[in-house]
Write a structure and sequence with these properties.
Length: 349
């Protein structure tokens, strides 16, 4: 039995008479289609309702106490990145456990709006001095961009009778273990820098770890510490005021801000170089699109004349590279400092 259907032009179309089963199937298909059509506006509305990233302020964790080079670099970068992204980037200092407290919090974050200031200590040293970490440095973090490199300066307080590095080394050899130096903590850039110098000069100076550069500088300025290696931005004002004496720089060449201070290499140790560095890292959960946007903002921020002038005024060298370039840099630094940490027998607090 067939069903005749007459269309608008008068033609007849013969179709088999629908059975109960085919009619039921047709009804289900029609119902599904109708449901899809009815749902489409809702789905479309949901897509339009999703806010573009970033949809809220971004938190930048700094794994050290206020007062050091890390804060100077972080706040300079945050100010410029905020302008590019159209959202505030607020800096939150979270010191402790050689930076691992902040690292752990960042690794566990899933809000898509948290990142951390990467550092030579947390990324290139801690993986080799801690027996176990609550995160995997390479697996649980995504490199975004290397922000800046900061020269390490070797300084003594004004009461130490050493006018330069050669005199300090002579003094240290005459009093092995009687002089001390401070750092922002075990595995910090200052710790690495001074241990590197100790190995090169074959001297023994006692290490006193602190919880951040700020507390360390307080004791150094008060004369309770003889020496330290500190990033230039945090310590340059105290050198210029005469409260501290810079006996050498860890740079390849002399700094324009300190033209009369020789480098460690010039002072009898060719090839010696020690530079701190800071970058941006995100949890592995952060989407690639967000990583790319931040990296692009970093590149723009580090090329901005105002930011460049501000950082270079503090002797920091702006960088602002790609995630791939930063990842390769971290890998190279890890290989380098793994050897130094082993030779110096650096252990966590």
């Amino acid at each position: 039995m067939a069903l005749t259907i007459r269309v608008n032009n008068g033609d007849k179309i013969m179709h088999p008479t629908p059975t109960r089963r085919s009619a039921l199937q047709f009804g289900l298909q029609a119902g599904s289609a109708a449901a899809a059509v009815a749902a489409f506006p809702t789905l479309l509305g949901s897509a339009h309702a999703q806010s573009p990233w970033p949809s809220k302020p971004i938190r930048l964790l700094v794994p050290f106490a206020p007062g050091g080079s890390s804060e100077i670099v972080a706040r300079s970068a945050a100010s410029e990145i905020s302008k590019s992204l159209g959202q505030n980037v607020f800096v939150e200092n979270k010191p402790g456990a050689s930076g691992n407290i902040a690292m752990q919090e960042c690794a566990a974050s899933t809000d898509g709006h948290t990142m951390i200031l990467g550092h030579i200590g947390t990324l290139a040293v801690n993986p080799f001095i801690f027996d176990k970490l609550p995160f995997d440095t390479n697996r649980d973090f995504r490199p975004i961009s290397l922000l800046a490199k900061v020269p390490s300066l070797y300084v003594v307080n004004s009461e130490v009778p050493a006018k330069n590095l050669k005199e300090f080394i002579t003094l240290a050899r005459a009093k092995p273990g009687q002089l001390n130096y401070g750092s922002a903590g075990n595995g910090s850039a200052g710790h690495l820098a001074f241990e590197y110098l100790k190995m090169a000069a074959d001297i023994f100076v006692l290490h006193v770890p602190y919880r951040g550069t700020g507390p360390q500088l307080t004791d150094l300025l008060a004369g309770r510490l003889e020496a330290a290696s500190v990033g230039a931005p945090a310590i340059l004002p105290h050198i210029k005021s005469g409260k501290l004496r810079c006996i050498a720089t860890g740079t390849k060449e002399r700094l324009p801000q300190l033209p009369d201070v020789p480098t460690v290499a010039e002072s009898g140790y060719p090839g010696f170089e020690m530079t701190q560095w800071y970058g941006l890292n995100a949890p592995a959960s952060m989407p690639q699109a967000a990583i790319d946007r931040i990296a692009d903002a970093c590149a723009k921020a580090m090329r901005n004349p105002l930011a460049t002038e501000r950082l270079r005024g503090d002797t920091a060298q702006p960088v602002g590279d790609t995630p791939a370039q930063y990842a390769a840099f971290i890998k190279t630094e890890q290989a380098r400092w793994k050897q130094v940490a082993a030779r110096a027998k650096i252990k966590p607090d």
